[in-house]
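#structure-requests
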Amino acid sequence: MTATIYITQQAYETSQTIKDMDYHDRVELCDDNPDFENRPGYRLKNANYLPLQPLPSHPTSVMFNSNEKVKIELPANLRGCIFENAPDLPEKYADIVSYWSGPTQNSNDSGAIYFQCPLNTYMVELESGTEGMIVQDRLLSEGIVVAITGLAGLASSLTADEFIEVHIPVDENMLGVEPDMFRSTAQYGMNKAGFEIVYLKVSDILASPSPDHIYIDLFQNELIDYGYWY
């Protein structure tokens, strides 16, 4: 079972426009349309993998998570390629991130092991194949993961068909094709001018493996489809 990440109609249209483009196609698109990369939805993970849908035109209710008990982080120890036996994973991380994020894009790319999070690296199991090395360990997440804690209480006070609105800051230093910041242990910039907005449905929150702990592989670093070169 996989949850749905709801976004505005404009963000959804953006995600659908670029979902089958590689890095070079997106660069060309943005060269021809200079403001396109600033459109809502542009920085989200590829829509062929992240389960995105447009927010219903007349949602029952949308609540912004200004509740002081709700905390949003983009932790350094969950940024980059995270494999199943990483030493510092939150409880139920594999189940939670899969539920909210869908499948990883590069699950069979052995180059991903060179882009492991420096705070969560280990000797990933490999096996020789006819076309090179085959990764035996499961790739759980590969982009920039947002961690949302403390939503269970708010969600339980709402009806199943209501939504909670979440604003996620966009740190451009972490999202480009150059890998230095993405692969570093630096903290994600939380006080940025730009942000993406997602909406989580209450029924999805309450049905999740851990309603009070949500992990979404939400933002796509350009390396994910440019290629894990090293």
